[in-house]
Design brief:
The protein has helices at about 1-25, 50-65, 65-70, 140-150, 160-165, 170-175, 190-200; strands at about 80, 85, 100, 105. With about 210 residues, it is mainly alpha-helical.
């Protein structure tokens, strides 16, 4: 009789533990909150036009730095140096933004910087925007620059999510490691990316 009771108690405990595990893994029991299924999902960030516009203002100095402006300036050619002079050898944008005729960007620019003072820099996907959508923002005010980045008809057909993803690509992040003889972007990379995320997540409002 005692043995049967012990077996019964053990069975009851196992059943209770199994039931608790099921409740936890299905999300039915959540400490300190209502019932939910599965893992916790981050709540969507509330729209905040003032915070979004301020975050964009914080990324503007990066967008206007020569490391960015040399590919987004007026003219059908890339620029070079901290003074943004036209690219040597009369390099042109070309029909796809990767150079014209036999002088392609990839002729000199690889997927990494070449070692040495002012030798060709490089990053994966090195190119200019296409001539159909050159994404030129030289001369634009902050508001118009913000609108350009948001507009798929001007930004390469990208959604806001894709704009954020583009800001995280090696091609953009190259600006912080541009190679010997070039001034890197002074704004901390982490700060820049955090402000890009805030701008996008809080509604991507533009400065007035």
């Amino acid at each position: 009789m005692i043995m049967k009771r012990r077996l019964s108690n053990v069975g009851f405990c196992l059943a209770a533990v199994f039931g608790l595990v099921c409740l936890i893994t299905t999300g039915t029991v959540v400490a300190g909150g209502p019932s939910k299924r599965g893992l916790a999902v981050p709540q969507a960030t509330a729209r905040d036009d003032i915070a979004a516009a301020a975050a964009f203002e914080a990324i503007v100095p990066v967008l206007r730095h020569p490391r960015c402006m040399n590919c987004h300036s007026v003219g059908d050619y890339p620029r070079q140096g901290d003074d943004s002079h036209p690219h040597s050898m009369k390099i042109q944008r070309g029909p796809d933004g990767r150079g014209a005729n036999v002088v392609r960007c990839s002729t000199c620019h690889q997927d990494h910087n070449l070692d040495g003072l002012r030798l060709p820099p490089g990053a994966p996907g090195w190119h200019l925007p296409s001539p159909e959508m050159p994404m030129t923002w030289e001369g634009l005010g902050d508001h118009d620059l913000c609108q350009l980045l948001k507009d798929p008809k001007q930004n390469g057909g990208r959604s806001m999510k894709q704009i954020v993803e583009h800001m995280h690509t090696p091609l953009v992040l190259w600006g912080w490691s541009p190679g010997e003889g070039r001034t890197p972007i002074p704004t901390p990379q982490k700060t820049f990316l955090e402000n890009v995320d805030v701008w996008a997540n809080k509604g991507s409002s533009c400065p007035k």
